[in-house]
From TrEMBL:
GO biological process assignments: transmembrane transport
InterPro entries, alphabetized: AAA+_ATPase (IPR003593), ABC_transp_ATP-bind (IPR050319), ABC_transporter-like_ATP-bd (IPR003439), ABC_transporter-like_CS (IPR017871), P-loop_NTPase (IPR027417)
UniProt keyword annotation of ATP-binding present: yes
Pfam families to which the protein is assigned, alphabetical: ABC_tran
Positions of the ABC transporter domain: 4-250
CDD domains from the UniProt entry: ABC_NikE_OppD_transporters
Keyword list, A-Z: ATP-binding, Nucleotide-binding, Transport
Organism: Bacillus gobiensis
One GO MF term attached to the UniProt entry: ATP hydrolysis activity
Listed name of the protein: Peptide ABC transporter ATPase
């Protein structure tokens, strides 16, 4: 059974630009599905549509066989628990006025009545925060610091810890390493792979970086001008049957 199924999804803006054009795909439970394409091809718009941050013009979005594109905010509440997002800029994703421990506890506070956690336990607030920091390989002392006191790699690990805190089934990773240095990029990608296996997560990994996508993903979709122009399993990346645009991306990575 597909965890996420998208059928003929289209999203346009008032300026007349069709950012997402009749997209259809499925993501299986436990899978990392990569979407790669140049900036402006519609990747981030697709992510916002899947999260219901932006309305779609037409098409359907199914999560565990339930159509969610027409659900109101109250009906979306359990869906939002099960799908989280990690964004490109961790500094913007974290409230600069909150200590790290407060940012980490916020998702739990929102969903605590409906949570049945299996990987983390909540004996106390501090113990829960410590578990989350350990999961992303950060020292517990960071809990009392503010975002500006951390490095970019540390801040991104905090946003990952926040995303996994309520044990979602799917995490949308929207350019999660784009703002990091090369060493931090590699470390974060390794961490994400380990977490997917340990916590049985599913990922939609969105990036302009084909090398990162190929490292992370079992299947890859190539997006250009709002459309999926190629899709294949990772082992077929260098196949002769690849779309010319895919070959163009390969030549520069």
């Amino acid at each position: 059974m597909s965890l996420l199924a998208v059928k003929q999804l289209t999203k346009s803006y008032q300026a007349g630009k069709t950012a997402v054009n009749n997209l259809s795909f499925e993501l299986k439970k436990g899978e990392c599905l990569g979407i790669v394409g140049e900036s402006g091809c519609g990747k981030s718009t697709l992510a916002r549509c899947l999260l219901r941050i932006e309305p779609i013009d037409s098409g359907s979005i199914y999560f565990k066989n339930e159509a969610i594109e027409q659900l109101n905010e109250h009906q979306l509440h359990p869906y939002r628990k099960n799908i989280q997002i990690v964004l490109q800029n961790p500094a913007a994703a974290l409230n600069p006025k909150l200590k790290i421990k407060d940012s980490l506890i916020d998702p739990y506070a929102q969903y605590s009545r409906k949570l049945n956690l299996s990987h983390f336990s909540y004996s106390s607030r501090d113990a829960f925060v410590k578990q989350l920091l350990e999961a992303v390989e950060l020292p517990s002392g960071i809990a009392n610091q503010y975002p500006h006191e951390l490095s970019g790699g540390q801040r991104q690990r905090v946003t990952i810890a926040r995303a996994i805190s309520i044990e979602p089934e799917l995490i949308v990773l929207d350019e999660p390493t784009a703002s990091l240095d090369v060493i931090s990029q590699g470390a974060v990608l390794t961490l994400l792979t380990e977490l997917r296996e340990t916590l049985n997560l599913s990922y939609l990994f969105i990036s302009h970086d084909l090398a990162a996508v190929s490292q992370m993903s079992q299947r890859i979709m190539v997006m250009k001008e709002g459309k999926i122009v190629d899709q294949f399993i990772r082992d077929h990346l260098f196949g002769e049957e690849r779309h010319p645009y895919t070959k163009e991306l390969i030549s520069i990575f």
